[in-house]
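[audit] Reproducing an earlier prediction to check determinism. Same input, same settings, fresh worker. If the C-alpha cells differ from the archived copy the diff job will pick it up downstream; this log only records the rerun itself.
[audit] input (122 residues):
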Amino acid sequence: MVIVGKNWIVSKKFDLSKELGQEAWIIMREPNNHTRAIMYDAQNAEQKTKMAEILDIYQALLPGLVIDHNFYNENQEKLDAKGLIDAIFEKEDLTVALLNQFREWISQPFQRDGQASDSKPM
C-alpha cells in the first residue's frame, strides 16, 4: 500500500442544522488509537466518572479531530477548531447532538462509503 498524505484516515460529516435552524456541519476524522482509547475509557467509566470530567475529556480531544466546518464568528472569520468546539460546548443541545452522533460513529467499525467491514467495534 502506498500512503499518500493521510489517505487511510476516514472522516464523517456531522450535521447540526436541526439544532441551529440553519445549515451547520462539522467534518471530523477518525480518532487515532490513543485518542480512541481515552474516549473508550471515558464512555465505559461514565457511571463512575462525573459528567463534567467526561465533557472535559471530549472538549479537549475533539478539536484535534476537526477537519472542516462552516461556523464563523461575528466578523465572518472561520472559527479555529478549539473555538468551534468551545462554542458548541456552551450550548447543551449542541453538545448532546454532536456527542451522540460522534459516539455512535466511533462505536462502529470505521469504513469508507460503500466499504463493508467484518470488524467488531472496540
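[audit] rerun output stored. Observation attached for the diff report: Residues 35-106 form one domain.
[audit] end
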